Amino acid sequence: MTRIALYQGDITELAVDAIVTAANSALIGGGGVDGAVHDLAGPELLEACRLLAPCPAGEARITPAFNLNCKYIIHAVGPIYGHDQPADALLSGAYNASLRLAVANALRSVAFPCISTGAYGYPAVQACEVAVGTVVQWVGSCESPAAVVLCCYDPRDFRIYTDRLSDADVDYRVLDAPDDLHSSG
Hints:
By secondary structure, this protein is α/β, with parallel strands linked by helices. The protein has a single domain, classed as Leucine Aminopeptidase, subunit E, domain 1. It has five helices and seven strands, in the order ββααββαβαβαβ. The protein has helices at 32-41, 43-50, 87-104, 124-141, 155-167; strands at 4-8, 18-23, 60-64, 72-77, 109-112, 147-152, 172-175. 49% of the residues are buried.
């Protein structure tokens, strides 16, 4: 079974147990994917996040998903590029912390956005290297979660991830629709 999937589109529409959001350390929402997640989940999310903050770069927290279709939201704090060091280790830590939370909560599927590449300024190609390397290593050594989706909202990021996964000769599949994860393929 192929455990890594790639999807271009809105992470909030994916049929997964948990979505990861690229959070800030205060866990209060903001712009980009985190702002969209907070808007769609509703005001209860902010209240839940306030109880878990602060969350340093390289770590993650989990909350219920409230008004979203998934069960949980994992709030991963990536590094601010050029400020938080060592950037690659902190970014990898955010992915690993999220995957540990998925396992601890018996989640079968989790979807990641491109963490730290928006307002935090992490170069997309370099962030992709860290993300793919971390996820491939996890999937190679751990049986859970059963599915990890790398979700790219931007078509340029999707091409970067497609090229990286193909170059690495990684077994993955592309999802054509948000609910394709659980279809055969």
